[in-house]
Amino acid sequence: MLVFLIFIFLSLLFPVLVLEAGRGDCQPITCRKHGPIIQFPFRHKYLHPEYCGYPGFDVYCNENKNTVLALPFSVDFIVKKINYVSQEVHLYDPGKCLLKKLPHLNLSASPFDYPEYYLSDYNLFNCTASTRDLDNLITCLSDSSNKFYAIDSATSMDSLSSISCTKIHELSSVPRNIVHRNDLHLNWLEPACGGCEAQGKKCSFKNYTTGHQIQCINKPNTKKQGILAKKNSYVVITNTQ
């Protein structure tokens, strides 16, 4: 009977010990000095345990010490800025050809979405080099043999019927100015931690082992700073006061 009671006591105690130890593992970090802070709901996929971040918010540090957001279907972008209050992340393509990646991007499989304002539909066309110049030439995809264009779907296709152009992809509900830019703004609704961050507090899971319920708690009154190295990726532990 005594052994059974000891077993029950340890069974109840062990998860508490795991929770208390786990909280220290979720220290906010950056890939480089002045880089975007990686904290809940984001987590460093190699340095943070899974309970430190919300599903779909995995990032890592590349060889250039940039913060990389890994989106579904192997579409990666560099993170320029994370606004935890407005719940927005600013991204850019290091290859400087955003429209090359967009056809492979499926945000429905991620927690992110485009801001709802100024969205448009585009058709991507591959035209022969002899084609007269049209609007919205995608220079990073075009070469001496082919020219690629992003044409607003509301535009009449009559002008393309008499020239050698092939539609290769449709982009639905993307930012209107995305054709001329190399950066991308995404936001997220869940987890809803913006109000908590605005109060100077931080979000975390209520239970580090089950469920996705979150809580808003005070930030620890500690000061820690240093460098961690793992998998050739260097990260800075941020000041948490």
From TrEMBL:
Annotated membrane topology: Single-pass membrane protein
Pfam families: GUB_WAK_bind
Residues spanning the signal sequence: 1-21
EC numbers, comma separated: 2.3.2.27
Domain Wall-associated receptor kinase galacturonan-binding stretches: 26-93
Alphabetical keyword list: Membrane, Metal-binding, Signal, Transferase, Transmembrane, Transmembrane helix, Ubl conjugation pathway, Zinc, Zinc-finger
Catalytic activity: S-ubiquitinyl-[E2 ubiquitin-conjugating enzyme]-L-cysteine + [acceptor protein]-L-lysine = [E2 ubiquitin-conjugating enzyme]-L-cysteine + N(6)-ubiquitinyl-[acceptor protein]-L-lysine
GO cellular component entries: membrane
Subcellular location: Membrane
Biological pathway: Protein modification; protein ubiquitination
GO molecular function per UniProt: polysaccharide binding; ubiquitin protein ligase activity; zinc ion binding
PANTHER family on file: OS01G0116300 PROTEIN, RING/U-BOX SUPERFAMILY PROTEIN
Family, similarity comment: Belongs to the RING-type zinc finger family. ATL subfamily.
Name recorded for this polypeptide: RING-type E3 ubiquitin transferase
